[in-house]
Amino acid sequence: MSLMSLTAVELGKKIKTGEVSVREAAKASLAAIAAREEAVHSFVTVVPEEAVLARAVEVQRLIDEGALTGPLAGVPVAIKDNMCTRGLLTTCSSRILGNFVPPYTAEAVLNLEKAGAVIVGKANMDEFAMGSTTETSWFGVTRNPWNTEHVPGGSSGGSCAAVAAEECSYALGSDTGGSIRQPSSFCGVTGIKPTYGTVSRYGLIAYGSSLDQIGPIAKDVTDCAAILEAIASHDAKDSTSVKREDYDFTAALVDDVKGMKIGIPRDYFGKGLDGEVKDAILRAAAVLEEKGAVLEEFDLSLVEYAIPAYYVIASAEASSNLARFDGVKYAYRSEEFEGLHQMYKKTRSEGFGEEVKRRIMLGSFVLSSGYYDAYYLKALRTKALIKQAFDKAFARYDLILGPAAPTTAPRLGESLSDPIKMYLGDIYTISVNLAGLPGISVPCGTDSKGLPIGMQLIGDCFQEKKLFRAAYAYEQTRAYEHCPLAKKGVSEDE
Amino acid sequence: MAKNVISDETIDYVGILAKLELSPEEKEQAKKDMANMLDYIDMLNELDTTGVEPMSHAFPLHNVFREDVVVNGNDRENMLANAPDRKDGCYKVPKTVE
Fold it and tell me: DSSP string spanning A301-347?
C-alpha cells in the first residue's frame, strides 16, 4: 500500500511517531508523480528530486528537534501555479509568465512551509484561473484520474487531479467562481472555499480580487480543516484580510448534526441538473436527515442572475489586474515590435490565450465610459441583491445543501467551443463567491459512468465550523473512494 | 443572431483599452463573442435594482493604515532577474518619447 493512499493527517501521524520518515513520504510522492504524470499531467512544474529531498531532511530535523509538531509536518503538497513560490517557476499556466520565478512566496504557502510542508510541485490550472476544465492551460490539459478521457474540472484541475491520483497528499487551490469546489466534485476529493478574507491573498496572482480565495483540497474533511487551520491568518499585506475570532477549525470535526437546520434550495434542483447527480445529492441529504439534521426546501431566488453578474465583475477586475503583464517587468516579451505601444500589444496578444483575452476585452468594455453604469454598476447592484437573498436564507438555516456542479466531468474537448454553456456549469458555485461565503464540496458517490459527484454545503460568513461539522458527520457514513488509477499502485514505493 | 451588435469602432476601441492587437479573423470572432456575452448579460435588466446600492465587497471593508516604514530589504537583483530586458540596474524598454 502506498503512503500516498493515506490522508494528509494520517501520513502526518506516521511521520510524527517515526514510523515513516519525511524522506520516505517525499519519495513516495515523487514515485507516484513519475508513474502517473504521463496519464494525468497534474503539474506544470515538478520540483527536482534533490531539492525535495533536501527540504525533507530539513523538515525531519525540525520534527526530531521538536520544533515542528503540527499535523502536516513532513507531508508532501502540490501548490496551484498561481501562488508565488520564491525561486520556483510560477506560470499561472500562461505563456506570458512562462519563465517567471517569483522573488517572494505567497503568505498562504509561507504558512504551510512554517507548518512543515514539503512542496513537490506546482499544479496545472486554467490560464489565470479562467476556465472550468483546465483545458486553457498553455502547458497542455490535465486529465481526470477517474477517466482520462474526461476533464478534471477547473480552474484548480491540476490540484484536484494530483490529490485524486495520489501524486501528493493534499494541495492548495484557489476559488473565484467555483474553481476549488467544481474540480473537487469532478475528481472525487474534498475542497473548501473559505469565507472571503480568511486566507491571505498576498502572493496569489490576482484574477478577480473581490472574489479570489485560496483553500485546501484533500481526501477528506479532517485534512481540509487541518490545512485551513495552517493557512488561515490575518495578514497586514492583504488589505482585505480579516482578523477572525476562531482559527481552530479542527475543533468542529464532530459527528453530530442533531438539530442542525439545512435549507435545500429548490432553484438548485431544476432544469439543467443531471438526474444521477440530483439523486446522489438527495441521498446524501437524506443521510444527514437520518443523523438528526432538519431539512427544509426553500426558494433562494436570483440563482440564474449570479452568472451574468459574475462575468461582468470578474472580467472587469481581470482587465485591471492583468494590465500589469506588459512585457516590461517580468517574463514574456514579443520578439519583434516597433515602439513601446506595439511592444505592449504584441506581448499581450501573443502571451495571453483566447479565454483570457475574451475576458480582458469584456472587462475593458464594461468599465469603459458610457457602459460603466449599465453593466458594471448593474452587476454590483445584482450582487447586493444576491447577498440579501443569502442573508435571508441564513436567518432560517445553518447551512444550504445542493450540488457542486450540474453534471459530472465532461469529456475533453467538449466545453471550450461554447463559452456561455461552460459558464452555466458554475451556476451552483458562483453566487457563493459574490456573497463572500464559505462552501465545501464533499464526494457523495459516482454516476453510471463511474465519475464522481460532489455535494456542496454553503455556510454563512465565518461559519466554516458548521460546514466542517456537517461535512464530517456525512463523511463518517462512507469510505473514501480511491480512483482506479490510484488503486493500481506504484512499483517503486511498494 | 445576437441582439447586441459590436461595431468595428467599438472592438478597435476595446483593443486600445485592453492593449491587445487582433488579426482581422480574431476581430470578427471577438465581435461575435462579445455580442453573445452582452446578450446574456442583458438578462440582468429583468431585475429591478432601483434604490439598491452597488456592492463592491461582500462585507464592509475599512481602510487599512500602517506606518510608512520600509520592512522589505533591497531585492533589486531578484526583481530584475525576471525582466525581459535590463540595463544599469533598470528595466529597459523601447524609446517612449520621440
Answer: --GGGHHHHHHHHHHHHHHHHGGG-SSSSSS---SS-SHHHHHHHHH
B2 at the A interface (CB within 8 A)?
no
**A36 and A485 Cβ atoms separated by less than 8 Å:** yes
C-alpha cell at A214: 485560496
Query: What's residue A1's pLDDT?
Result: 64
pLDDT digits (tens, 9 = 90+) for B1-46: 679 999 999 999 999 999 999 999 999 999 999 999 999 999 999 9
CATH class name, domain B8-46? mainly alpha
State phi, psi for A341 to the nearest 5 degrees.
Answer: -65, -40
Domain hosting residue A14, numbered range? 3-258+469-493
CATH of the domain at A95: 3.90.1300.10
> Which 3-42 residues of chain B touch chain A by CB within 8 A?
10-11, 13-15, 17-22, 30, 33-34, 36-38, 40-41
Which residue is associated with the grid cell 447586493?
A: A384
- Answer whether residue B93 shows pLDDT above 50: yes
Chain A residues within 8 A of B20 when measuring between CB atoms:
345, 348-349, 352, 357, 360-361
Residue B75 has pLDDT above 90, yes or no: no
Residue labelled with grid coordinates 501524486: A167
Residues A210-238 have pLDDT tens digits of 999 999 999 999 999 999 999 999 999 99
Residue among A239, A346, A419 whose CB faces B21 most closely: A346
The total of structural domains in chain A comes to 1
